[in-house]
Design brief:
Low-confidence stretches: 1-27, 471-495, 508-545
Number of helices: 27
Order of helices and strands: HHHHHHHHHHHHHHHHHHHHHHHHHHH
CATH architecture of one domain: Alpha Horseshoe
Oligomer: single chain
Largest sheet: none
CATH superfamily of one domain: Tetratricopeptide repeat domain
Helix content: 55-70%
Number of strands: 0
Structural class: mainly alpha
CATH class of one domain: Mainly Alpha
CATH topology of one domain: Serine Threonine Protein Phosphatase 5, Tetratricopeptide repeat
Mean pLDDT: 83
Shape: rod-shaped
């Protein structure tokens, strides 16, 4: 249409009777309705599946697996019944490390075209990549595959079998870990480690039992729980890791969660009962110890050790507790043995090492005790009080090099005054030189007995002796002098023994010699009953034994 010409043309007259506009002009006729011509529907050209396949092959050869998958997908949509298109897409998915999707395509292709060797080989390869070697070997068997074709699947199956055997019969988890490491080498790139393998690895770490291994066992459990927080086996694995680390309350919590997920899960029931029983017996032993029933505590701890002999963490603590109770019972060697076992279970257990040092000190093995304390300091320099413990043990070592007055009198270090006096009376009679005229060492023994009594019967001197001061200096301790003429010419370092005690001890039979104790004065007087003719008071006939 010519737009300019239409604008200058004369208006067309209206016929009579046509309605007028309000201003008197004739109304223009309404324009005809606008009609858009209907477009014909676009022609739907069929997808050429073979062309898509060819394009996919081209991309596959170029290693552009994403575009290859897209083209194969178009071919599958065009012809869903083609096993070839499914198999080709599976090959592209394998190359793209998308093994779960490849598995579905391989299985569908096998359904569409059973016993196709190419499809079966591809399916077996996917099974191997996903960590399913037994499934792979079954497929290879159907395909009559060669040993070379089956090599990876067979190696994986062998390693898994070794791991299972070691878990069942072996004592070390390290062989299990090695076998699993070898099996994982044939997993497909990016494939998650199978759940069963993680559980086996966690079990192996529990079997190893050291601090790092227990941490690794927890890591395996946590990986599984992130994937499924209601996995009862993973919950039990983590609970056992916590139990092995001595965190029994959290372990019990995990076992209960596992039972909430699966009330019939026997492993959860077994471990829950084990931990609860061990906790109960340990607490009973602790209560007996706190009540001063040390023998009962030892018996209960002994029974507790039989509940789960494999639990290193808890058993090391029970052994240390039993060692402490044995110290209270003065069973020092048993205490050392318990601590040694505790340290074999947990070499980092400082409390057991300190308890062992204490027991060794009680046995008089001070060098060994100091060695144990130094080991504590070396491994943990910040251990509270360790320097003081070492100094105290060194002091005990020095004290042990002088005369042991408690040992001389045959009493314990916590003996009271009556026990000390009773022991002295008995030993003084037995070892008095008059009773042992043919024993040249009797005088020395009697002297030691007197020194021991002199020191331990005096609270101040005993305190100084116990504190480690050198009390053997005559000038400092006894004021010089000696036993004078008695005992064959002096016993070195006179001892202030009560004349009344000696008189009563000897039955009062002290005739002659100027009335018995006439010569016993202070530190310098002779001791009654000494050798004849040496000065000092003499006894007419010795002691009335």
């Amino acid at each position: 249409m010519d737009v300019d010409r239409e604008a200058t043309a004369s208006p067309t007259p209206k016929p009579n009777g046509t309605a007028q506009e309000p201003n008197g002009d004739s109304a223009a006729p309404p324009p005809p309705p606008h009609r858009t011509p209907t477009s014909p529907p676009p022609s739907s050209e069929p997808v050429d599946a073979e062309a898509c396949k060819a394009a996919g092959n081209k991309f596959f050869k170029a290693k552009d697996y994403t575009k290859a998958i897209q083209e194969y997908t178009k071919a599958i949509e065009a012809d869903p019944k083609s096993a070839t298109y499914r198999s080709n897409r599976a090959a592209a998915l394998i190359s793209a490390n998308r093994f779960p999707e490849a598995l579905e395509d391989c299985k569908t292709a096998d359904d569409l075209e059973p016993n196709n060797p190419k499809i079966l080989h591809r399916l077996a390869r996917v099974y191997t990549a996903l960590g399913r070697p037994q499934d792979a070997l079954e497929v290879y068997e159907k395909a009559n595959a060669s040993a070379t074709d089956k090599a990876n699947a067979q190696a994986m199956a062998n390693h898994l079998s070794q791991a299972e055997d070691q878990l069942r019969t072996g004592s070390s988890g390290s062989m299990v870990i090695h076998a699993l490491d070898q099996a994982e080498k044939n997993l497909g790139t990016g494939v998650s480690i199978p759940r069963k393998w993680r559980l086996m690895r966690g079990e192996a770490y529990l079997k190893m039992g050291n601090v790092n291994a227990l941490g690794e066992a927890q890591n395996q459990a946590m990986t599984l729980l992130r994937a499924n927080s209601a996995d009862p086996e993973a919950l039990v694995l983590r609970g056992r890791s916590l139990y092995a680390q001595g965190d029994n309350p959290k372990a019990i919590q995990h076992f209960r969660q596992a039972l909430a997920c699966d009330p019939d899960f026997k492993d959860a029931v077994k471990w829950l009962r084990t931990v609860q029983k061990l906790d109960r017996m340990k607490e009973e032993g602790n209560q007996a110890f706190k009540s001063g029933k040390y023998k009962d505590a030892v018996d209960i701890y002994t029974q507790a050790l039989e509940v789960d002999p494999q639990n290193k963490g808890t058993n090391s603590k029970i052994l240390q507790n039993r060692a402490t109770a044995n110290i209270k019972l003065k069973n020092y060697q048993q205490s050392v043995d318990d601590c040694t076992r505790a340290l074999e279970l947990d070499s980092s257990y400082l409390k057991a090492r300190k308890t062992k040092a204490k027991a060794l000190g009680e046995l008089g093995q001070f060098d060994a005790a100091i060695h144990e304390l130094n080991a504590v300091k070396d491994s943990n320099p910040g251990e509270p009080g360790i320097q003081k413990d070492i100094r105290n043990m060194e002091l005990e070592s020095k004290k042990a090099k002088r005369k042991d007055y408690y040992k001389i009198l045959g009493v314990e270090k916590d003996a009271d005054d009556n026990q000390i006096k009773k022991a002295y009376r008995k030993l003084a009679i037995v070892h008095h030189p008059d009773k042992n005229p043919d024993d040249p060492e009797a005088a020395e023994r009697f002297k030691d007995i007197g020194e021991a009594y002199e020191t331990l019967s005096d609270p101040q001197k005993r305190a100084r002796y116990d504190s480690g001061e050198d009390l053997m200096d005559p000038a400092d301790m006894f004021g010089g002098g000696g036993f004078g003429g008695g005992m064959g010419g002096g016993m070195g370092g006179g001892v202030n023994i009560s004349p009344e005690m000696l008189f009563n001890m000897m039955g009062g039979g002290m005739g002659g010699g100027g009335g018995g104790f006439g010569g016993f004065q202070g530190h310098a007087g002779g001791f009654p009953g000494g050798a004849r003719g040496r000065g000092g008071p003499q006894f007419s006939g010795g002691f009335p034994f």
